[in-house]
Amino acid sequence: MKPELLIVCCGNRYSSDDAVGLHVARRLKEGQIPEGIEVLEAGTPGLKLLDLWEGFDKVIVVDAVMSGAEPGTIHVFEGTSLPPRNFLPLCLHGFNVIDAITMAGVLGRLPRELRIVGVEILTEEAYCEGLSPRVAAAVEPACERVLAEAKKMIG
């Protein structure tokens, strides 16, 4: 049976805090994921995001955010009220999650329900593995928030 909800966790493991989505994915997989939920480590998917969520009506995207808030702050955005494009880091070829969502809307390939859970990061320093302490401390609360949002979406 196909899962009802997909959690797509994004990030570049070699760009410091930008990897926070991948850390959330791994932590979620270590715990009890409710039935009907699939967790996917997507790396930096760019427009491939549209293919990853194909066939899912309910999707949560977990990614790094740089809005100027305190590192470790957890944001939740509804699919109908996306954050500004520059809040999310760019990925390969200059696309980010907001670009992919915008393109999906144009192409009619948006999931029926979409949320973004963003974790405010301190740095996306290239060629640096590991999270800064404040962002690392936000991984567990981010997991709790993701699961709370998932529960709202699948009832």
UniProtKB/TrEMBL annotation:
One Gene Ontology term of the molecular function aspect: aspartic-type endopeptidase activity
Superkingdom, taxonomy of origin: Bacteria
Gene3D superfamilies to which the protein is assigned, alphabetical: HybD-like (3.40.50.1450)
Keywords, ordered alphabetically: Aspartyl protease, Hydrolase, Protease
Keyword Protease on entry: yes
GO biological process: protein processing
Protein family membership: Belongs to the peptidase A31 family.
NCBIfam families: hydrog_prot
PANTHER family: HYDROGENASE 1 MATURATION PROTEASE (PTHR30302), HYDROGENASE 2 MATURATION PROTEASE (PTHR30302:SF1)
Name the UniProt record assigns to this protein: Hydrogenase maturation protease
